[in-house]
């Protein structure tokens, strides 16, 4: 019998660090990279978790934007007309002057190992680490489809694109190993969206056309 309770997981490396937060969303600066490499960028629609393994509360969110830009207002990048290989050979310092930030919409939280699909009682703390959510966490977070209601409130990007991306990411991470379970998830998501967008058929159709997981292409 399924529950909302998480099982202990092995430690994983953080992908970002929170630099700005509220109850509904946060912004984090990506970690890693250095030298000639950019840090790993979370995928659009991917699921993230904020908080150390021993933290009392973990906050879950979905990536809705990723931005790479200058470290400050002084060292602004400009077009150099060079390929990536040429830049690495002739101007390697340009990569150290860039940072990547991820913006994510909060869709739930966990306390004492149990996941809740409503907003947390407090926002993430600045400098909290951000991790990629596990398949188990995504499965528990998405089984009642409330995450779609949270994401439909995001106004910074087209909501049909964000909703479909999150459904695809959930399929790949949490449901792809069992085709019957994956099908049940997609049918349930479609029904939830049909009810949510019953007054906007064009938007509903747009989302349904895009929810097919990309790994099946």
Kindly state the number of beta strands. Answer: 7
Question: How does the helix and strand content classify structurally?
Answer: alpha+beta
Report the average pLDDT across residues.
87
- As laid out across the biggest beta sheet, the strand order is 1-2-5-4-3-7
Order of helices and strands: EEEEHEEEHHHHH
Number of contiguous helices:
6
The unreliable regions are none
Distance between the termini: 33 Å
User: Can you give the helix content as a percent range?
Assistant: 25-40%
Estimate nothing, just give the exact number of structural domains.
1
Percentage of residues in DSSP E strands: 15-25%
Rg over CA atoms, rounded to whole Å, is 19 Å
Label the overall shape: globular
What's the layout of helices and strands?
Layout: E1 16-21, E2 25-30, E3 47-50, E4 57-70, H1 84-90, E5 98-111, E6 114-116, E7 129-132, H2 135-142, H3 146-151, H4 159-175, H5 179-196, H6 201-210
